[in-house]
């Protein structure tokens, strides 16, 4: 049976963070895509989920989650934006797990260049979810087998609501074909040596959502991430995520559950964990502007919402961009990804210095030299846009108590 989680109490924020970040995470040693595949007797536990009873699958799901250290703060999957350098930057500042960007299973199986450019990882990049979109069980399995030795979960994207997902018939548009969804999960659950996870959205009717979640669990899903909006609620600023619905899903299944939606700063992380009872929280859009969110930093936009006293955290988005660029030099990724992060991190700066943004946009081919010089020019204007930190948060980035 699933162990009963202890109810969250309303601790001071510093004690809350200490409690969540005190458990060490499991060390991993992934290699390259060309490395020899490990045997079934290697470090993997073997997840032939369909051959087990429901209770045994739940026990195995919790054993694996516990082995990973039960990560609470997780980088959500973002197309072109949750690539290795960005994941490593977020991990430095408190993230305890991360998803890859969504990978297209068919292209991943067919195109070596796509595999080499779109999926990269390193020894320290764990726990790691590798996410695929798919509508063909056999193609999905072929793609998943290429990455299973480098990750802790193979994740199926069942939540993308964008037009491209509708055209490609994947993501949240598979909610109209539950037998196909079930076959995708079963195919991986029976054949992979790592567990299957799924990321979903809500149906308009809560009971339909709960039936959906139970079906996924029965098919072999061992971890469920729930975005608390429906397929039609694409605008996160217009539609608030439904945490009560996420809590209902949590109570309806026996496997670990993660929550996604409404995470703007660390207070939201605490509130979400308390209100939903889930095992962890995903953040996407907010991390793009503030990769130090999980370390307690927040942008000026959210300072007024804090219950505590916020001070200049001696860190700003330009500092984070420099760190990100150095990680990109170490772990190369396509320039389109780098360009996107530059705009997200320096948006406030560019609004004050639009001529520098225009020069960036004119660059058909970027270089690190140009980007480092651009940051220097922004700093030379004498304007600084700091990130703030609550004085209740005593932890420093990347350093947590034992």
Descriptive overview:
Residues 75-365 form the DUS-like FMN-binding domain. Keywords: Flavoprotein, FMN, NAD, NADP, Oxidoreductase, tRNA processing. This protein has two domains: 55-294, Aldolase class I (TIM Barrel, Alpha-Beta Barrel), CATH 3.20.20.70; 298-388. 42% of the residues lie in helices and 15% in strands. It contains 17 helices and twelve strands. The chain has helices spanning 13-21, 54-67, 84-92, 105-110, 112-118, 137-147, 163-168, 178-191, 206-219, 243-252, 266-276, 285-289, 317-330, 335-345, 347-352, 354-362, 368-380; strands spanning 73-75, 97-99, 103-104, 128-133, 153-158, 196-202, 221-230, 257-260, 280-283, 297-298, 310-316, 386-390. The protein is globular, with a radius of gyration of 21 Å.
């Amino acid at each position: 049976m699933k162990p009963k989680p202890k109810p969250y109490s309303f601790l001071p924020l510093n004690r809350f963070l200490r409690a969540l970040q005190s458990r060490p995470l499991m060390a991993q040693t992934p290699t390259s895509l060309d490395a020899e595949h490990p045997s079934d007797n290697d470090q993997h536990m073997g997840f032939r989920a369909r051959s087990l009873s429901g209770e045994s699958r739940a026990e195995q799901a919790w054993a694996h989650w516990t082995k990973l250290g039960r990560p609470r703060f997780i980088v959500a999957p973002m197309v072109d934006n949750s690539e290795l350098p960005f994941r490593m930057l977020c991990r430095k500042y408190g993230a305890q797990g991360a998803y890859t960007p969504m990978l297209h299973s068919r292209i991943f199986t067919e195109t070596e260049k796509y595999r080499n450019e779109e999926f990269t990882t390193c020894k320290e990049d764990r726990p790691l979810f590798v996410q695929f979109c798919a509508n063909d069980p056999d193609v999905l399995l072929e793609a998943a087998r290429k990455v299973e030795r480098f990750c802790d979960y193979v994740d199926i994207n069942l939540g993308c609501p964008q037009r491209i997902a509708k055209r490609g018939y994947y993501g949240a548009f598979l909610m109209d074909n539950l037998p196909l969804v079930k076959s995708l999960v079963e195919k991986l659950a029976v054949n992979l040596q790592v567990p299957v996870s799924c990321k979903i959205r809500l149906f308009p009717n809560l009971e339909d959502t709960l039936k959906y979640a139970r079906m996924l669990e029965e098919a072999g899903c061992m971890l469920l991430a729930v975005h608390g909006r429906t397929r039609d609620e694409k605008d996160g600023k217009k539609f608030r995520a439904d945490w009560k619905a996420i809590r209902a899903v949590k109570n309806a299944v026996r496997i670990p559950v993660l929550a996604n939606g409404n995470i703007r700063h660390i207070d939201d992380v605490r509130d979400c964990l308390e209100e939903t009872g889930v095992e962890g929280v995903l953040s996407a859009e907010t991390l793009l502007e503030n990769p130090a969110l999980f370390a307690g930093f927040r942008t000026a936009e959210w300072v007024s919402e804090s219950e505590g006293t916020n001070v200049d955290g001696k860190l700003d988005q330009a500092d984070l961009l420099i760190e990100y660029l150095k990680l990109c030099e170490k772990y190369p990724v396509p320039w389109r990804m780098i360009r996107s992060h530059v705009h997200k991190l320096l948006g406030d700066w560019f609004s004050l210095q639009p001529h520098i943004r225009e020069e960036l946009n004119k660059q058909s081919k970027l270089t690190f030299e140009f980007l480092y010089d651009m940051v220097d020019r922004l700093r030379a204007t004498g304007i600084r846009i700091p990130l703030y930190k609550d004085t209740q948060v005593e932890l420093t980035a990347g350093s947590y108590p034992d």
